[in-house]
Write a structure and sequence with these properties.
Layout (H helix, E strand, L loop, with lengths): L7 H5 L7 E4 L24 H8 L20 H13 L8 E5 L5 H15 L3 E7 L5 E2 H21 L3 H4 L4 H11 L2 H15 L3 H18 L3 E7 L8 E2 L16 H4 L5 E8 L3
Parallel strand pairs: 1-2, 2-7, 3-5, 4-6, 5-7
Helix pairs in contact: 5-9, 7-8, 8-9
The structure holds adenosine-5'-triphosphate and magnesium ion.
Magnesium ion binds next to α4.
Length: 275
């Protein structure tokens, strides 16, 4: 039996219910016992992915909220199953997923480690982690923040430069990199973001930002794993008015309606249930 009903914010993003993982509170408990209907095979044998993980020298470009990485305990089965899912991404067989769970049940700890693992493995999957803050923000600024984080993490992966995950580049630096180092799509995107900003075309700015992973994956024949943490905040903290005084835009979860269908840029939405 499922512990909670299908979360309405996740449902607006178009991730089907059978691709949602429900998480329970205890790190050591088998969180997957309540999701037997999720179509992952739980093999006992080691997957190719696990072998690579074992042989990977872990790096931690994304500072994990848990602090010292050794403090993360348990969750072996979860990481094994998520490893099998990650294994499918290069083969274009993976589907977007969501994790739902109560406050403080350990969702962020799991996905931040997934980011660091995928980054460290340095294969053909580029990870992008973005956490939607509990802080009011004006819509075009949100679009720029999202794009800067994506572009900086993308460059950090190409250059193997951990600092760019912690300190996102400015739009100017992203454009400069795009011009000098070839992903010219970066320079075009920055130009379009600024062009739209001048004309107050804020929907177009957000569209450039949220479609970037799929566009990059297509142009450069890569796979991208988009991890959006604290997804429930997307309907509560983004404002259409600059002063953030009116009502937050409650429709933005719907932006992911189409992108979650992608087989080359997979989305992993993480949301608290508020219970
Ligand atoms: N596997 C784990 N081992 C040890 N400590 C953990 C583990 N998972 C989470 N924690 C600790 O539990 C607390 C809550 O974890 P985390 O922030 O990941 O939960 P969350 O579900 O993302 O919470 P929220 O609903 O607020 O987003 C943190 O202090 C974290 O360090
Ligand atoms: Mg969290």
């Amino acid at each position: 039996m499922r512990p909670w009903s299908y979360h309405n914010i996740i449902s607006r993003s178009n991730i089907p219910e059978d691709q949602v993982i429900f998480i329970t509170d205890c790190f050591s408990k088998d969180i997957f016992s309540c999701i037997s209907y999720v179509s992952w095979s739980d093999k006992n044998c080691e997957t190719a992915e696990e072998k690579i993980v074992k042989n990977t020298k872990m790096r931690y470009p994304l500072p994990e909220r848990i602090g010292d990485p050794d403090l993360l305990v348990g969750r072996e089965k979860e990481f094994r199953l998520l490893g099998q899912w990650l294994d499918l991404i290069p083969k274009r067989l993976g589907k977007s997923r969501a994790i739902l769970g109560r406050r403080k049940s350990g969702k962020t700890a799991i996905v931040q480690r997934i980011f660091n693992r995928v980054w460290s493995e340095n294969r053909n999957v580029v990870p992008f982690y973005f956490s939607i803050r509990e802080k009011k923000i004006w819509y075009p600024e949100f679009a720029i923040e999202y794009y800067r984080a994506f572009a900086s993490q993308y460059i950090s992966f190409l250059e193997r430069d951990e600092r760019l995950v912690r300190n996102p580049l400015s739009l100017d630096k992203i454009r400069e990199y795009g011009i000098s180092e070839s992903p010219d799509i970066l320079a075009e995107d920055v130009n379009m973001l600024l062009w739209n900003r001048e004309r107050e075309l804020h929907d177009s700015m957000w569209e450039i930002a949220y479609t970037a992973p799929e566009r990059f994956a297509g142009v450069y024949d890569q796979r991208i794993l988009v991890i959006i943490d604290e997804f429930q905040n997307i309907t509560q903290y983004i404002y259409r008015d600059k002063a953030c005084k009116e009502k937050p835009d409650e429709t933005l979860a719907g932006s992911f309606h189409d992108v979650v269908e992608s087989k080359i840029a997979l989305t992993f939405l993480i949301s608290g249930t508020g219970k």
